[in-house]
Amino acid sequence: MTADAMLLAFPSLAGLPATILREFSGLKQMRVDKGTVLFRDGDSCQGYVFVMHGSIRVQKMDPEGREIVLYRVEDGQTCMLTTSCLLAGRSYPAEGVVEEPTELVLLPAARFDALLADPAFRRFALGMISDRIAELMALIEDVAFGRMDVRLARRLLELDDGTHSLQLTHHQLATELGTAREVISRILKDFERRGSVALKRGRVEISDLNGLRELATQQV
């Protein structure tokens, strides 16, 4: 790994002193396969993760086995929970799963702690998590107060790549929205009765795009 490669993926590192940028030269870029669990709830944090390319899904499971996606770490991002765990010396409160082949760089915990002494690196590390805090607040509001049919309509539209055919299961949608699979199945059946979607095995096809958009614009 070179300092130039890190700067290309993380332009905000450009303000760091050259001595700190050289710290990245000895780090190894790793390729992680889809489906790999990078960390589990209760694991200790081994280092600060830079995602060069790919996607890591960070999710939380309750005692009954229900899951909710907290956020994703994608190209040019770092993991908010990793930063929090390193700063507080605590274990992970959730798990991180690789969603697609991902290239990442791991800065060992001891080196991360040492670099925090530099104000520029400290601003970088804390700045990377600021947007995530706003996203999590919005997620909390949605889960606590949002109408599930509106949230589901919005998520289907977000996932649509233009083909209007989504390869995903009811369980996956439930995980995305932090609810039970049975709730998603019931709402999708209602959508199907309205003619908004057609349900196939492992697939949801959007039949009435305008109708789904109209529902998605309603207040949650």
From TrEMBL:
Natural source organism: Mariprofundus ferrooxydans PV-1
PROSITE patterns attached to this UniProt entry: HTH_CRP_2
Domain HTH crp-type: 146-210
GO CC terms of this entry: cytosol
CDD domains with a match to the protein in the record: CAP_ED (cd00038)
Gene3D superfamilies: Jelly Rolls, Winged helix-like DNA-binding domain superfamily/Winged helix DNA-binding domain
InterPro entries for this protein: cNMP-bd_dom, cNMP-bd_dom_sf, Env_Response_Regulators, HTH_CRP, RmlC-like_jellyroll, WH-like_DNA-bd_sf, WH_DNA-bd_sf
Keywords tagged on the record: DNA-binding, Transcription, Transcription regulation
Domain of life: Bacteria
GO molecular function per UniProt: DNA binding; DNA-binding transcription factor activity
Ligase among keywords: no
Amino-acid biosynthesis in keyword set: no
Annotated Pfam families: cNMP_binding (PF00027), HTH_Crp_2 (PF13545)
Full protein name: Transcriptional Regulator, Crp/Fnr family protein
Upper lineage: Bacteria, Pseudomonadati, Pseudomonadota, Candidatius Mariprofundia, Mariprofundales
